Sequence to fold (442 residues):
Amino acid sequence: MTDDLHLLTGAYALDALDDAEREAFERHLRTCPTCVAEVVGLREAAVRLADDSWSSPPPRLREQVLERVHGTRQLAPTPTGRASRWRRRAAFALAAGLIAAVAGGVTYLVQDQRVRQEQAARAEAEQRQARIEAVLTASDAVVRTSPVTGGGRITVVSAASQDAAVVVVAGADAPPSDRAYELWTVQGTTAHPAAVLAPGQGTSTHYVSGIGGADLIAMTIEPASGSATPTLPIVAQVRLA
Amino acid sequence: MTDGQFPALAPAGSATARPEDLGDLLRQVARGDEAAFAGLYDKVAARVYGLARRVVRDPAQAEEVAQEALVEVWRTAARFDPARGSATAWIFTITHRRAVDRVRSEQAAADRIQRLAPDPEQTGHDEVADQATARIERQQVRRCLRTLTELQREAISLAYYSGYTYREVAAVLDAALPTVKTRMRDALIRLRDCLGVEASR
Fold:
């Protein structure tokens, strides 16, 4: 992406481009996954500006709209190819951007293990990378993110088709060296341990399988080796459905 | 692996604490469910009309814009893609785009400079707005807006509430184009981080 076009993400999210520029930028978006990821986030912020503009419409509006809707044919979904490409790009860009930005990312893991010449571990890391990519590029991948208490964010890319999610914890407040963040899949009131981050680490990427039926992914702070039951409070949670 | 009991799912300051069922309603709407659409209307109409009113000013035109936007929500509901943002973002993007198109087609840029004065009729005390969640959300937005620089705040207000293009914003604020582009982006990034909005739902 060029810097110039990339800087238009804010103006685009605010609908502050004229028609010609909007079209040009939307063409650019089709080839710029990082721009797509940024636009998605900025748009969420921009629409919150509407929160400050409540005003009761005239009662007749409801009748008029419902009547028009009754006589209006609905469009079919966008042809799947395009929608899912967009989705894959958005999910991939967001996750890939985070992964690239953090130590403990997939590439780092692979490189680290190459250095140590551990063939078995390397094969495992490559498998892990393949599994992560399968989630990120799944046609049903959905990206959700939430702040972590004390700072940082947790981003979850989940794909029901893979029965798995990729969880990226970035910039969370580093716990003391004898404590670690632990991830849980939560179904109802039952929490299953999903992964334990390295002690003292606030940035990491994890592949979590078996998310079917889980309502959310939650994170707590536990002793360095992890716990079988979560210690409250929950410092971050992301709903899966 | 053993399972642990989660005695209480405290939200812990998470952005997911707020129930988001607009997405569910929208999925039902996409299947042609008119009753679901009526439910969706009741949830969003005051914000859709309020936003249209704020941008186009004229109540009669705002009503038309709100109607067009809501019918477009119905018509294109099947094209809502949760991976590209929340249902709220989708609905208000449609509304805002409609409102902006209206002011840009209705008036020359020069006319719109006249509309900078605050709208004295801007409603903020109607019964819908008195709902606790609405109030909290509004306070949160206002608090976050206060963390922006003056230029950032003006740039996004002129664009979002007055429907100005960034070129017009640059002219009004007498600022360089790249500066305005950057300020808009920086302002939204700061707002996004302050609000803790989810990138997607």
